[in-house]
Structures are given as structure tokens and as C-alpha cells.
Amino acid sequence: MHPAAHPHPDELKALAEKSRAVKLLPNADRGGPATPLLSVTGLTKHFPLARGAVVRAVDGVDFTVKKGETLGVVGESGCGKSTTARLIMQLLDQDAGEMLFDGELVGGLELPLKEYRRQAQMVFQDSYASLNPRMTIEASVAFGPQVHGLSKNNAITRARDLLAKVGLDPARFAGRYPHELSGGQRQRVNIARALALSPRLLILDESVSALDKSVEAQVLNLLLDLREAFDLTYVFISHDLNVVRFMSDRVMVMYLGEIVEIGPVETLYAAPAHPYTRALLAAMPSMDPDRRTEEAPLAGDPPNPINPPPGCRFHPRCPFAEALCCAVRPELSPVGEDGRQVACHINTPGARHSKAPPALEIIP
Ligand code: SF4
Q1: What angle do CA 71, 191, 15 make, to 5 degrees?
Q2: In tens digits, what is the pLDDT along the chain, a chain of 364 residues?
Q3: What is the distance between the alpha carbons of residues 173 and 85, in angstroms, rounded to a whole number?
Q4: What is the DSSP letter of 311?
Q5: Ligand 1 pocket mutation pick from 255, 325, 329, 354 by most atoms within 8 angstroms of CB
Q6: 8 Å CB contact between 347 and 360
Q7: Structural domains in the chain?
Q8: Whose CA is nearest to atom 3 of ligand 1?
Q9: 3-state secondary structure of 73
Q10: Is ligand 1 within 6 A of the CB of residue 197?
Q11: Residue owning the nearest CA to atom 5 of ligand 1
């Protein structure tokens, strides 16, 4: 098999079935299809600095990830995307908030951290730093299953199967070390390693950002095929808005540690409701001359997360900011019929903003 190729989706499905037969523990859908796979409430992480200052990296975010969907996460550097990913993975302890995984409290009696970490895996941006340079890629992929109790022989068989699934012929690649592979091949190894524990949730944190465009496209298509074959759910973090659009079912926009807008990808990209989302999408390069926008580009850098502005954190850069915005923090609230939620006074009926719609009439 050519290293750049990856198996046909039907082939992947057959391999996934085979894999399920030897998986470590059953991944039953305990909560039913209506229960989100991940439900995050009030998630907060502040990093303490000298003299009592804190960086408010993530500040009380609430969101859900439905089973089988891809939730894209976008925002400028420092908006809290990667900290959110690390909190989801429990690589960092949250200061406040809780997470339910398929309806069960993460770290609770029903779902201890070790079992949760098996079911939620992460692929990082740096494919080289993610792998142990002293281990062959076969040993790297087999390591997790062995830690979770699989015999060495079974773990190696599983690792070779997974390498085939991600398009790396085990006969050629299993014995190689990370430095003997290209960036795209190493990222395929990282994906295989993430799949080795039969996860249900994959967090992809800028996992294709360091790849060449042609290799990036191959890995993105591979991820889409694997999502189908393994019934996976993705949280896909990227600064590339075109890639997020290609991959995601819903998109979450973050700004300075908060969620400012979340909704279905097509409607959010077609009609962004929050001024920050509009500015972000306006800055997105497009090959289509009809898609050129007259929206003002986003000016300046995000404010310092050590001392975020009061009220709406976007107000120093927002062309629609009014006195209300400087004083009152807008809540993330439902807007329209498409399941969209937006945190902006303009979208809040009855808010004291000149562009807000009138208050809804309450019919007794
Ligand atoms: Fe702009 Fe005010 Fe909306 Fe914030 S709340 S985005 S400052 S209009």
C-alpha cells in the first residue's frame, strides 16, 4: 500500500468490526441516542500568576457534543480552545464546572478517570513530540492497550491492524521509529494510537495544521472515514475556518475564554450572528469573487486575559459596542430556529442596546 493512500470505507468498516471483537471493554451507548456524548457545564480554568494575578483561560463555558457529530472549535490564539481540549481530556484539573460523558459524571463512581481516558482520546498538533522517539511505531500504538490489560501479542496484533486502517502498511512501517516517517505518516500513527483503546470521543487539537495541504486533505478524508467506521464523535479544533467548515456539523466560536456563538455549521457560516463571528469569517480567504465581504476586518489583538474587559469581553473591538456592552456581560442565549446560541446584547430581545429587537410579548 502506498503510504499516502488509505483503505476504502467498506474495508475500514470490516476492520472496525474485527476490532470491536477484540476491544478492551464494551462501548455501550448507555445514555441512549438523545443523551449528548459530552455535556460540559460551567467549565473554568484560571492559571495563577505572581502577585495574585490570574489568566482566565476558560471562564465558565457550557456546551454539549452530540453522539456521532463533529463539533468544530474556532477562535484566535489565546481564546481558550486548547485549554478547553485539555480540560475535556482531564489533562488539566478544572477550577469549577463538571462534565458528563454519556450521562455519567467524569471521574465519578460510574465513570472513573482511567475508563474515561480510554473512551476519550486526543491527537495533538505536533506529531513528532507526541511519539516516544525510542519506541517503534508498532510499540507506541500497542502501549495503551497493554496498559489497559491486553496481552502483548494481542496488543501488537491490534496495533498492526490499526496501522493498516490508517493507511500505513504494517509490513513496511511497524518497525520504524518516528524520525523515519514524514509528518503526515506520523500523524496517521498518532490517530492509530488514539484508536487503539476503542474510544468514543476524539479531540483533534490542530491535528492537521502542521501538514502540507495535500497531506492535510488525505488525513481529513481519513478522519471522516474513520468517524463512520468506528462510530466516533469528534471535537475538532483549528484556526483554519475552511477546514472547520469541511469537517464539522456544528461550530463553537470562542473569544477570550468564553463561548460567543455556537450553532450548525452551514447556517452559522451563511449568517453569523455575533459581531466577532462575522469579523472572523470576513477574514476567511475565499476563491469566490462573489463571496467577497465588505465587513470591516477585525482590528487589534485580543485584550489581555489577565484582566479581561468588563461586560462583553469583545466590546473594545466591537463596532456596535454601546454603554450596556461595557457594563453587562451578555449571556449565551438561543437565537432563531436552528439551535443557534449567541452571547450578544444585539440578539437579546428587550436588551438596552439600540440594535436589539423589542422585548417578546408575554401572552398570559
Ligand atoms: Fe458588540 Fe455589544 Fe454584542 Fe459585545 S454585546 S458583541 S460589544 S454589540
Answers
A1: 100
A2: 444 456 676 776 666 655 554 445 556 777 788 899 999 999 999 999 888 888 999 999 999 999 999 999 999 888 999 999 999 999 999 999 999 999 999 999 889 998 899 899 999 988 899 999 999 999 999 999 998 888 999 999 999 999 998 989 999 999 999 999 999 899 999 999 999 998 999 999 988 887 788 888 888 998 999 999 889 999 999 989 999 999 999 999 999 999 999 999 999 999 999 999 999 988 776 667 666 666 556 777 777 888 889 999 999 999 999 999 999 999 999 998 889 999 999 998 888 889 888 887 666 6
A3: 30
A4: S
A5: 325
A6: no
A7: 9-251 (3.40.50.300)
A8: 344
A9: strand
A10: no
A11: 344
| 156 CA to centre of ligand 1 in angstroms | 54
Residue partners of 129: CB distance under 8 A and separation at least 6: none
The SS3 of residue 241 is: helix
Residues 127/102, Cβ–Cβ less than 8 Å: no
What does pTM read for this prediction? 0.87
